[in-house]
Structure formats: C-alpha cells, structure tokens
Design goal:
Number of helices of chain B: 9
Strand order of the largest sheet of chain B: 2-1-3-4-6-5-8-7
Oligomer: heterodimer
CATH class of the largest domain in chain A: Alpha Beta
Structural class of chain B: alpha/beta
CATH class of chain B: Alpha Beta
Distance between the termini of chain B: 53 Å
Distance between the termini of chain A: 15 Å
Largest sheet of chain B: 8 strands, mixed
Largest sheet of chain A: 8 strands, mixed
Largest interface: A-B, 66 and 52 residues
Structural class of chain A: alpha/beta
Radius of gyration of chain A: 26 Å
CATH architecture of the largest domain in chain A: 3-Layer(aba) Sandwich
CATH topology of the largest domain in chain A: Pyruvate-ferredoxin Oxidoreductase, domain 3
Strand order of the largest sheet of chain A: 6-5-4-1-3-2-14-7
CATH superfamily of chain B: Thiamin diphosphate (ThDP)-binding fold, Pyr/PP domains
Chain lengths: ~575, ~280
Amino acid sequence: MNQIETTLDRPVTNVTAMPRQSLSIVMLGSGGSGVMTAAEILLRAAARAGYYGLMTKSFGPQIRGGEAAAFVTLSTKPVEIQGDRVDLLLAIDWKNAERFAGELLLGANTLVISGEAGAELPQIVTEPDPRLEEINLKTLTRSHKGTRPNMVALGTVAGAIGLPREAVAALIGERLEKKGEAAMAQGLTALDLGYEEAANFSLSKLAAAPTEAARWIISGNQAAGYGAMRGGVRFAAAYPITPATEILEWLAPRLQKAGGLLVQAEDELASINMIIGGSFGGSAVLTATSGPGLALMSESIGLAVAAEIPMLVIDVMRGGPSTGIPTKSEQSDLNIAVYGLHGDAPHVVTAPNSISDCLFTAQWSTHLAEAMQVPAIMLSDQSFGQALGIVEKPAEQAFAARREVAEAPGEDYQRYALTASGVSPMALPGTPGGQYTADGLEHAESGRPSSGVADHNQQLDKRLRKVVDYDYGDHWAQIEGDGPAAIITWGSTTGPVREAMRRLDPDGKRLRLISLRLISPAQPKALAAALQGSEQILVIEQSQMAQFFGHLKAQFDLPAMADLYARPGPQPFRADEITAKLEEWLS
Amino acid sequence: MNAETACALTARDYKSDLKPVWCPGCGDFSILMAITMAMADVGRPPEEVAVISGIGCSSRVPAYTSCYGFHGVHGRALPLATGLKLSRPDLLVIAAGGDGDGYSIGGNHFMHACRRNVDLTYIVMDNQVYGMTKGQPSPTTPPEWDSALVPGGTGLSPFHPLVIALAAGANFVARTFSGDAKGTAQTIVEAINHPGFSLIEILSPCVTFRPEEREWAKQVHPASVDATEDRARAARRVLTDDGFNTGILYRGNRAPYQPAFKPDDAAKVDFEAEFLP
C-alpha cells in the first residue's frame, strides 16, 4: 500500500512532523457565509502554487440559505476524488450541519476548527472524536472593521496547510480590486488574521509543490461545453436542469462570441427538436440535460436516427429515477441512453472518464455524430459536471466536425443512398437540386415515405452499418496496466478505481484497468483483446441494478466468470472503499 | 430575387410528383395548391424554402412540395422550424400541420412560438378532427361530437387558436377557408411577407370523418372589417364572431426574434485563458 495514504488512518504521534502529499479539507457554513468563495480561492491559490486539486460542493435543498459544504483535496499528484478522510474541517457556523451525515468522513486525526466560539458541535462531528479547536470569527471580524468571516476562515485553512500567503493574497487582491482599495486592504487584513490563527494549530503541511506546469482549473461541465465547441458545435438549444445547467450557462455567451447561438427552449421536447432543425440546416449542434430531460427527448432522438441527423446530447447524470437526487451523482442512465429509443435505432453513446476527459469525449462525440450523421449521447455525471479540478492542460485534438455534404447534387441525387459505409452525403437547404424531405417515416433512398420490405431492411441495415463498422480507434476505452486481474468500469467510477490501483499495485503488474469511453455500439472484439491474459475480471459501477454489467453481458460477450461490485449513489466511491473491495476480491 | 427568375417560377415548380395520401374531397388538396401558388408569388426558388411538419394527414405536406422538407415527430414542427430558421435566417421557413398536431400535442410549442416571434409562417389545416387515426375529437372539435373514443362527445369547450395566438404574441393572425385557394394563397403571401410569427388558421373540411363540414363552404364569409394593429380589438373580434369570418385579422409590429448567427471558423475558438488559475 502506498505510504502516503496509509498515514490517514494510522494513529498519529506528531502530526506536524511529516509533510503530506495530499490533504483533504472541508469548509462548512450556512448559505451566504461565503464558504464557496473562500474554498474556490483556496483551490485557485493552490493551483498557482503548483498543486493539483479537486473541489466538490454539497448544498441543502434550499435555493438560498441553508447549509453548504465545500470539499477540497489538494495534492502534489493528480487528484480525481476526495480523500478517504477529512484532514481539516473548518466551520464558519454549524447551522443544519447534520444534513451532511454520511458525507463528512471525519476520523480521530481530523482537525476540526469551529468558527463559532462556544457553539455546541453536532453529533456527526463529535462522534468520530476528532481534535477540536476553535477560532472566534465573530470577535475577530468585529475588532477589524470590514473584515469578513469567510476570508479569515480562508486564511486559517491556507495557513494551517502551509499554502504560501502570497498566492492567496494575490487572488484576494484580484477579486476585490473592483471594490476599491479599502475593500482590498480589509480582505488582506482578514487573510492575515486567519494566518495568525493558523499558527496555533498543529497540522501536517502540504509537501512542496511539484514543478509548475501548464494546469487548468475547470469543471466537467465547462470541459464538456468547451470540447463540444472545439468539435465545431455552434448551435445549441436547451432547457435548464440540474446538474447540466452550467454547460448551458458556460456555452451561451461563448457561442455568441463565436458567432453561434444558444436558445432557451420551452421544454426538452422543444430543445431537442430545435437542434434537429439546426442540424438539418447544416450546423453542428448540441443540447445538454439530465435523466428526466433525456427521457422527454428520446422520441425525437429516434427521429434523428431515422432522418440521419447528427447531434450531441449530453446527459449529466444524477440520482434517479424521476426527480431523484438532482444534486448528486449516479451511473443509472446507461439503460435509457443505450436502450431507451423505440424501434431498432442505432446511435452512439459515450462517457468521459475524468473531468478533463469531458473535453476530449465531448469533442470526440461531436466528431462521431457529424461523421456518421447520427445522434451521440454523452453520459457525463454530476460528480464531473459540478466539480472543479486542477488538471493538466488537456492535449489539443485534431477532431473537427466533418459532415459529408452533397455540395453539387446531380439529377440522380438520393439523400439516403445506400453506400458501403452507410453514410450518405447530406444536401443542405439552399443547395439547388438537393431538395428532399427528411422523414421519421421509413423511406426509400430518395427520402420518400415507404413501408416496403426492401426499403425498411435496406435503410435499417445502412443505419446500423454506419455505426457498427465505423473505426473508433483506440478511443473506445482507456486501458491502464496489464496485470492478470482486470477491472472494467466507466465514467466517474474510473477515478476511485485508478486511485485504488495506485495503492495496491503502483507498478501496474497485478491489475489492469479498462474504462469504457464508447458505451455503444458495443466493441466485443476490442474488449476481448483488452482482456487477453486476464485471469480475473471485476466490473465496478454506481448503479443498483448493475446496468453496465448487464450491458457488458448482453453486448460485449463478457466472460461468465466476471465478478461485480455495484451499488447506487448518492455517496461517491472513495478510494478506500474500492481498495478494500479489491483486496477482498484478489484474496 | 430578380424579376427574371421570379417570372420563370410557377406553382407547378413547387409541387413534387408524389401523390398525396389524402381522401378525395379533402380540403388539404386545395391548401397544397394555395401553398405552391403563394410560393410562386413570393418567388424564392424551391431550394431556399423549407417546409416543416409534425404528424397527421396535413403534416404530410412537405414531401408534396419540391422544397426542402422535414416531416418530424407529432407536435414538434414549430421547435424544429425555429431551430432551422434561427440557424439559417437566409431560408424561407414554413411550418404546417393540423389542429391535433398544433393545438393539442404541440400546444405548448404553439404558445411559445407565438411568444418567441421568430420569422416563420405557420399554416394550420384545421378540420376539427384527428383524421389519420380515424376520427377522434381534437381540441377544436365541438363538445357534442360523438365518436368511438369519446362516446357522447367531449363536453369541452373548443380551443380558440386565434385568441391564444393573439394573447401569446403572434405577429400576424388570419383565418381562411380551403375552398378559397386563391384567397388562401394571397393570405399566405402576406403572412410570409409579414415579419415575425404568422399564423394562418385554414378551415379544411374532413369529408371522411366530419362530412357535415362540407357545409362550411356555405358558412364562411369574408370579415366585414380590415385587419387591425390592436391586439385587444382583434381578440374581441374573433371571440365574438361566428368562427367563419375569413381574412387577415391582425397585423402586429413586434420585432422578430432573430439573434445574430454567423459562426466563425472552428479553429478560432480559444477560451483557454479563462481556465488558467
């Protein structure tokens, strides 16, 4: 097991002695306390100082107010998940903190700093018997005019973990610049008050940051939006839904800058049809939604299959069914994405395996949709979408939307001509001689409605062929290690599995990771090749009904000896949970 | 459009050779004729016109024209047409369909299309019945009309599309009768030329399931007053008339919704700076 991580659960004699490669921090406070702002500045400052990191948020159901928690893990190595245990919890106040039961992974080594002097701490905090400390945010901010509790809290956390003050101070300066010199000075005073308080607490500091490299701070939703734009998307239509709305809000002004457009539709039935219209007109298009919206769209995605209209539909999955848990993650929309269309409707379903892979996968999915004139559904999820990560700058990809267009259709032009690849050149409105009617009715090669046997069979075959015969290259999966024990997973479960593998098998000799990026069409041959030499197979997923496992069994010829570890959300997988599961499985 | 090409195009140039599925005597035949006549009059070549529809007897119309067309899913013609027009403002986009498609399953889109006021012309062939599924009541069917699905009639007040269109913000509202192909064609031309969202509600008898609608020919009459720019007055007129007044009822002057759409080269997209810490 990896030395660094084992320190988390080991009794500590001198916690300040050894710098840590990774620290997990929680900042807690009621809505309006500024806890998210403070945590984001902390993350950004750490990024500037050369660390990797991840910030996830947890909110109560209240629109405003209520309790909010920011989870921040900072590390000298890439971070894909929050740490197993919280090292430092700072609460600006404790109002309704009980609602984070099950989320605050506190232990005896956790340092809890209460910002509310004399307050009674909730049982979920005291029960694990952590080290308890106090700062009096009220007194401190009252005695220094204009200082805010969240900035003092930020200074306390940054000081306690040993983050250089300059990086934090610079960010506060940038944020408060517009508010004038007095506000800036007050912000810095607050920061310094926090740093002074931090000197009273003993906590391992973060180890020195690695060499500064080109890093980005980006959320999965931003990455997905940017990837789609890099893929050529310029027209979008959508209806707001948690946790996908940030994709739309990120895209709207940026599409405008690129001469494109995002339209807010009256519902998901409208948004999917608006992008069908946009794509029919020649634009690369997208919509983004979550499970309930995808359900509403599915009839029209079937239309896009039949009429051969390329489009990207991003589903940022959340707990389901129905309204479910809108603010928390689950991998339970696989079935509706793959099998939810009526009729025999071949299409593409993809899934990113990390925050930065949201960019790659969205770009790739746009490319696939355009190249095959088919809808592509990308299954992201809340844990990617709404998390902010400090990641390596994603590599530039050469994909661009390339649709086969009939530029000068001749007299014998047929929109749905039977071709070897199954892809037929599309005439765009405005092109003389290319006129045809796109139709959800089964049609002949010309596009004219037909209920004839030959036309139905030929068009079905063509639509299947273009998707199944397409060369997806190596992108169908992310494969790491080549040990005899193979783990097959997908999406946001990949991060915790990767971390567990690093702990158990740092050299990649015992374990093998196969994380599927192409969920459908199935690639049984590629999977068989990737499994070559494996003696054990374990499928891991976050779905009660094991939708991924079922899909692998039905479509990928998954060997019968494959084992399964599946459970629902909303609790994210942590590395210790997967590590324990793998140890049990391997023994 | 230059005069020379305009002269060269006739209604025939906008008609495909596909034979309609409609019953003999269906009002939609003359509406198809009116649409092609109107297109010839407007003079945009067929490849610059897109006819968008949903599902139903009248929704079959795109393939009967020689234009680009889209025969989509039930009730969604308007959002599809909206997406096309917003991303291709250069095209002339016409949406068409029936009362079930537009006012029932597509009712929400109808209201929002009126409100959004994209420069579209929406032709509704209203026969007050679901014909393709063989005779069920639609939102405009009279309450007492007896059918297998709703024995004894719905008992519900019919939906009033023109009033709803006015209330929701449509910029041009007209009612015509299929039997008057020439008048209908002229109204379609005016609707196309009027900016924003135009609704033309065309009374189109279903001789198969509503044979009594043959009587409409005797009941329709041109409105005795001219179109108004006053939305409230127009609404009052159509609420109090007998449902058979034909003509242009309302011409508004709301600016159409048409945000700029001029996508630049994919390679120019660069938002990297905002991701730097």
